Amino acid sequence: MIAPNPFPSSACIAFGSLGVVKANVSSLQRVRRKRRAFGAPSATPQSSEKIMKKISRIFGELANSVALASGKPPAFVAAVGVVLIWALSGPLFSYSDTWQLVINTGTTIITFLMVFLIQNSQNRDSAAIQVKLDELISTSSAKNIYVGIEHLTDEELDDLRRKCEERAIRPPNDSEVRD
Q: For residue 62, what pLDDT is reported?
């Protein structure tokens, strides 16, 4: 049986080496009200959406750039060069544990980061292809505005996907067929 909470107006704030720190919920609410009253900056939903959209766009551009660059011959030549330099430097470092740790750590870090970047690029490309296919299926002739949509943010692709699905549900007007 669970014991009743001895602190009904408290909330668990953090775990520390000294135990659980508790704070009175009403005191936290008073602090928040005072901050708002004195014009303390607070994150509005619109500002946080703008920030997330900007981060998404920057990450998408970085992911696309890295994915494109890593798939080209110069990137492969550079990787082979690094491995050759590492292998040739073995006798210089007596094939020590540190010498082995350098290549293991480097390749692990690069692989870990590349997984996320390449996956992001693949997700965006897949979503863009799906939207394009949806448009081809829902209309008799494809619209040129869908060319290059793989460069849009995830949110913009979701919006386009939603609009295509809405058009597929309702019958087309004469103006939509001509566009």
A: 87
